[in-house]
Amino acid sequence: MDMILITGGAGYIGSHTILNLIEKTDYKIIIFDNLENGHIETVNTLLEINSKRQRRADARIIFEKGDLRNIEDIENVFNKHSIDGVIHFAAFALVEESVKNPSKYYRNNIYGTLNLLDTMIKHNVKRIVFSSTCATYGNPQYTPINEKHPQNPINPYGYSKLAIERIMDDYDKAYGLKSIRLRYFNVAGADEKGRIGEWHEPETHLIPNILKANDVKTFTIFGNDYDTRDGTCIRDYVNVLDLAEAHRLAYEYLLEENKTDVFNIGTGEGYSVKEVFDACERVLKKKIPVEVKGRRAGDPAVLYADIGKVKNILNWKPERSLEDSIKSSYLYFCKNKK
Ligand code: UDP
């Protein structure tokens, strides 16, 4: 059974993918994370969940603290463990911050990934599933967005992910590295038992901010003058457990087909900020304080995915609704309010 290195495994999407692998597979897992945005509590919860599932506490999951910007950190992990493949989440992922501090994004996301890829090639590991993003498309020329849509990112975050996609193509041609890039749209929700969830500091994302506003402050809608059905931005919110499943299928596709490819991961449906807000009020069964302020820089009006390709080739489809995502986010929020 393969041993998979999960970079960024202490973060939001990485940790839910590990949960999926614990529950559905026998892969051995090495979690690699610098804990800058990831949390040791999340790692401990995953270790605990795993130890409850198996009788012998063997080392099926191992945590290795390290930073991809230090090539020795990642070299040490490859020297110590016999890794067969990688799922690569570790990255900075805030658009606004990337505009203010591009150096941080290029150094970490691009340079860190180069260190990872070079170490992989050196150790003859040639399978990687990579977290890419719809931010590589930039302002949409048409919707729904398919994988053939031109990639013209409008911020350093999107550029950093696009650069990595191109590097992976070159590494395929030159060294035979096979990669599946999953271009995520918006991600929402949490483990349905509330054990792990979305934990960003500061929190900038829509659904956690609405749920928080219920208790502590007024929720702000960034702009209601867009050219959309109610004036607020439209996004495609895919559930994090569904997204985790897509990573498992992508890894298995690499094992079976050994082919480089790219897939959009969304639901194919767009919801406006106002519709998401209304759905949160329905789930919570109460009024949430809300105000409207100006647009946030860099937000396109409408983004949603064409997911025909991933349905056909990986046989993946979203199983959970927007309301499911809101419910699980709220459960996690209530359990971890402190
Ligand atoms: N948004 C908002 N108020 C918030 C957070 C987000 O109105 O407190 C809007 C944001 O302008 C965008 C949508 O919600 O149109 C989704 O934003 P988010 O930051 O969750 O994800 P992004 O689309 O930036 O990846």
Automatic annotation (TrEMBL):
Its cofactor is NAD(+). NCBIfam families: galE. Homodimer. It is an enzyme of class 5 (isomerase). GO terms for molecular function: UDP-glucose 4-epimerase activity. CDD domains: UDP_G4E_1_SDR_e. Pfam families: GDP_Man_Dehyd. Its EC number is 5.1.3.2. Residues 5-327 form the NAD(P)-binding domain. The gene is galE. This is UDP-glucose 4-epimerase.
